[in-house]
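Question (not urgent): is this output format expected?
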Amino acid sequence: MRLACDKCAKHGLGFYATHISPADYIEGRHDADVWIIGLNPKGDIGVEEKRTIQDFDNFSPSSHSYFKDFSKVSRKLYDNFNSANSRVAHTDLIKCFSPSFPPVVQQNGQQKIPNVELVIKNCIEHLMEQLRRHTPKIIICNGSPVSREILKVFPPPATENWNTITSYQADLPGTDHKFWIVLSGFIGRIDDRNKRRLGMEIEQILTQEKIEL
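Got this back:
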């Protein structure tokens, strides 16, 4: 078993992978225009990720119930998930597996919840590397925790109200790349009306940016 990232070892967490680094953890094509950002991969703490980069490139969202709710957000987006030339991919804010978040870890014979802010701070570095490598045009934040952390890293324009803003353009530090950030509650928990409202906002951005799905 290979420990591909030990940034959070003192917190009882680690990213174990045979073939990839945390920055390779993108389900779908790496050059996808649209990324969905979840919170963290569900699984036992310390489980080894055995998929290869090719497995990630060939990932089929239809194999996971997590993505089914997107059919009520935007059929255009959802139908593109499994097309041969899909322009939609998925990654997580936190790369380490855990059954829940915050994770409960075993340390010195006791169950503890690690310092979540430090765990997120460590893992944000991997997400930033992913964004710089592949420069997606839109990221969709799935859930309030993800939205909250992305707002910290990429503050919206000063003219926008943080409490009401739902999407905005951000600059990727160290590059001349601009991309859209779409904020949302957890897709599986918002009602159908708000799912569709979110989808219409995403579709408007797709049209504005001339992204063909």
